[in-house]
């Protein structure tokens, strides 16, 4: 039997050896975050608080403030917005510091001032976010025969939870906020299985039925009154590289989906494909070319051939 003292010494030696290995530059070089001056990482807890407060502002009396009355509404919403502005300013600043390699103190002061301005600009977009989300709620209620009420849609539907995070994140993305928008959409992705990049442009009255496994890429453009089902991918077909062999960033590589399109479950649309207005894409279709307006696309029951059925729009 090994004496306890000897065992303790051996355990200490193991820990010291592991610490030494983990602190070798070649071990941590690619995974160590070097903060700008004393800059802190964005806080997941604070961002979750921000999103939940925004959810309560956008959908009053549905969540943790269910006892809100018309008389108390202005005070409660005002309190939430003041708190959101303070928290968001700090997180936007941390987002800039997370992505910044400048080490001068003056640059950090400028980041702080910019964060204040962007936080106030974001607050001014909340009425527009609510209008868009109300249209999404209508789309879900009108598009799903199982929906019994608007309240059920708001409180229960993963599409609305995801679209709330997405529409918040998209406004921040458009303002030029670093990393924070992606964190916010990934929160919803983790909770619902719906993956929407904050850079995607999605029109009003949008609904993802069931939702799980849906992917919408960064440069997607989606019109109004579009409905997707579970497992739909609007992704990139290929990833061009530069002369050094690195992926080229920022190019338009995802689909354009016009107004009034329906895409059924399991369908994959890749590349800068243009799906024309009023088209219907059936389930389990693999699509990598443009579709004219008013076309129905489906898989043949006897083979993997795609059948195009132009609709009579007369």
Helix residue percentage: 40-55%
CATH architecture of the largest domain: Orthogonal Bundle
Widest β-sheet, arrangement of strands: 3-6-9-12-14-15
Q: What is the terminal-to-terminal distance? A: 90 Å
Structural class: alpha/beta
Rounded radius of gyration (Å): 24 Å
Q: How many separate structural domains?
A: 2
Describe this structure in words.
- The chain has 314 residues and is α/β, with parallel strands linked by helices.
- The chain has two domains: 159 residues, serine acetyltransferase, domain 1 (Orthogonal Bundle); 102 residues, UDP N-Acetylglucosamine Acyltransferase, domain 1 (3 Solenoid), CATH 2.160.10.10.
- 45% of the residues lie in helices and 13% in strands.
- The strands form three sheets. It has a six-stranded mixed beta sheet. The chain has a five-stranded parallel beta sheet with strand order 1-4-7-10-13.
Brief summary:
This protein has 314 residues and is of the alpha/beta class. It contains nine helices and 15 strands. The chain has helices spanning 4-22, 25-28, 44-58, 73-99, 105-124, 126-143, 150-156, 158-174, 180-192, and strands spanning 195-196, 201-202, 207-209, 215-216, 221-222, 227-229, 233-235, 256-257, 262-263, 268-270, 274-275, 280-281, 286-287, 295-299, 306-310.
